[in-house]
Amino acid sequence: MLTGLNHLTFAVTDLKRSLAFYRDTLHFQLEAEWERGAYLSLPGLWLCLSFDPLRSTLPAADYTHYAFSISDVDFPHFVAHLRAERVGEWRDNHSEGASFYFLDPDGHKLEAHVGNLTSRLAACRQRPHAGMQFRDDQCVGET
Description:
Blueprint: E1 8-12, H1 15-25, E2 29-34, E3 37-42, E4 45-51, E5 66-69, H2 75-84, E6 89-91, E7 99-103, E8 109-113, H3 117-126
Parallel strand pairs: 1-4, 5-8
Antiparallel strand pairs: 2-3, 3-4, 6-7, 7-8
C-alpha cells in the first residue's frame, strides 16, 4: 500500500543553473550533489535534480504541475521575491486560496499555494465544479 509521496525527480539541462534556482531562489536545503545530479530538501520533501540532455526547456501545454505549501503570511513576500528575480509565470490563479504559478529554469511548472485539501474541499462545497460529488458520506470499504 502506498503511504505518500516519496520524492520528485526533475530532469534538467543545466545542473548548476537549476541547483542555484532551487537552493538560492527557492531556499531548498542542499543535501548532496554529484557530477550529474543533486539532492535537495524541504521539510517533508525530497527533490532530485538529474541532468538529462533529452529534457526540453519548453513547458508542456497541459496543467500538470508541482505545488508547494506556503503560509499566507509568507506568500506576498515570496511572490515579490520571485518577481524581482524575474522568474517566469505560467498561469493566473483561478482557484481557492492564494497561488502563484511559476517556472523553473527548465520549464517545470511549479506553484506556491496557501491552503490544503481541507480548505479546497470547503471552498468547493460553496461553489462546486460542474458535476462534482463529495464522497464523505460513503461507508468505509465501499467502492
